[in-house]
Write a structure and sequence with these properties.
Layout lengths: L10 E10 L2 E11 L4 E5 L6 H8 L7 E6 L2 E2 L5 H7 E4 L11 H12 L4 H14 L15 H14 L4 E5 L7 H16 L3 E5 L3 H7 L2 E6 L2 E6 L1 H6 L4 H10 L1
Parallel strand pairs: 3-8, 3-9, 6-7, 7-8
Antiparallel strand pairs: 1-2, 1-4, 4-5, 9-10
This protein binds adenosine-5'-diphosphate and magnesium ion (MG).
Length: 247
C-alpha cells in the first residue's frame, strides 16, 4: 500500500478504569503505542479488550484514567472530532446494505468532513484502490465476500484520514480462506506507518506485524512487550496458560 496515510500519533492509555454497574471491566489498564507502531492486544474472552478499544475512541467514557494522543488527553476533544482522528473496524463490518460500496465510503466523508461530492468520490476511489477493490465501487455489500466487505469497512475508515486505527477482531467473522486478504491490508497499513491497536486471535499476525503485544487479563494489561519476548518468554503464568491454549 503506497499510501495515503497521514501523520500518525503516539497513543497512551493510562490507568483506565471502567465498571458496568458492579462489574469492574477495566481495572487500571495501561498501554503504550509509539507513533507509527502497531500494538496487538491478545487475551481471553471477557478480559476487556473490546471495552479498552471503545474507551480509546470514547464510545465509552472511562470512570478514571486517561487516553493520550501525542501526550494530549482525548477527553478534552469533542467526541465527533475524535472519531475522525481514530478510525475503528469491527468484527461485523457494519456497511449500509442498501448503498453501493462507493456510497458507503462517501457518506461519512460528506457528513463528517463536509466534503463536496466530487472530492468525496475521488478520496473514496483512492482508498478502494488501496484495499484492492477499485473494480467494486458500484457493487452492493451483499454482492461481495465477507473479506471484501471488511476491506470496504477499512477503506471507509481510512478515507477519513485517521491518525490511529483500532481493529476489534476484524477477521473473526470471516471464513478462513478470506482472513489472509484482510490481514494483508492491515499489515500494509502497519508498514505504511499508521499507529494501530489490533485486538486479534491471529497469533501469527501478532508475531509478525506487532511492535508490541499486550496480554489482557481481567481488565488489565498484565504483560506487554516485543512479540518474541511475550511469545517465547512469558513472565506470567496466566499468559503462559493462555498461549498454551491458542498456539
Ligand atoms: P473482550 O473483548 O475481551 O471479550 P469485553 O470488553 O467485550 O471483553 O467485555 C468485558 C466484560 O465486560 C465482559 O464480562 C462483558 O460481559 C462486559 N461488558 C461489556 N460491555 C458491556 C456493557 N455494555 N454492559 C455490561 N457489561 C458489559
Ligand atoms: Mg471483544
Amino acid at each position: 500500500m503506497s499510501t495515503a496515510t497521514t501523520g500518525s500519533v503516539s497513543l497512551a492509555v493510562r490507568d483506565v478504569h471502567l465498571a458496568f454497574g458492579a462489574h469492574r471491566v477495566l481495572r487500571g489498564a495501561d498501554l503504550d503505542v509509539a507513533r507509527g507502531a502497531t500494538a496487538c492486544v491478545i487475551g481471553p474472552s471477557g478480559s476487556g479488550k473490546s471495552t479498552l478499544l471503545r474507551t480509546i475512541n470514547r464510545l465509552i467514557e472511562p470512570d478514571r484514567g486517561d487516553v493520550l494522543l501525542d501526550g494530549r488527553s482525548v477527553l478534552a476533544d469533542d467526541p465527533d472530532a475524535l472519531r475522525q482522528r481514530i478510525g475503528m473496524v469491527f468484527q461485523q463490518f457494519n456497511l449500509f446494505p442498501h448503498l453501493t460500496v462507493l456510497r458507503n465510503i462517501t457518506l461519512a466523508l460528506r457528513r463528517l468532513k463536509k466534503l463536496p461530492e466530487e472530492e468525496a468520490v475521488r478520496l473514496a476511489r483512492e482508498q478502494l484502490d488501496l484495499v484492492g477493490l477499485a473494480g467494486r465501487a458500484d457493487s452492493r455489500p451483499a454482492q461481495l465476500s465477507g473479506g471484501q466487505q471488511q476491506r470496504v469497512a477499512i477503506a471507509r475508515a481510512l478515507a477519513l484520514r485517521p491518525e490511529v486505527m483500532l481493529f476489534d477482531e476484524a477477521t473473526s467473522a470471516l471464513d478462513p480462506e478470506l482472513v489472509k486478504g484482510v490481514l494483508a491490508v492491515m499489515a500494509d497499513l502497519a508498514s505504511a506507518g499508521m499507529t494501530m491497536v489490533v485486538v486479534t486471535h491471529e497469533m501469527g499476525f501478532a508475531r509478525e506485524v506487532a511492535d508490541t503485544v499486550a496480554f489482557m487479563d481481567r481488565g488489565v494489561v498484565l504483560e506487554a512487550g516485543e512479540p518474541a519476548a511475550v511469545f517465547e518468554d512469558p513472565r506470567h503464568d496466566r499468559l503462559r496458560r493462555f498461549l498454551s491454549q491458542v498456539l
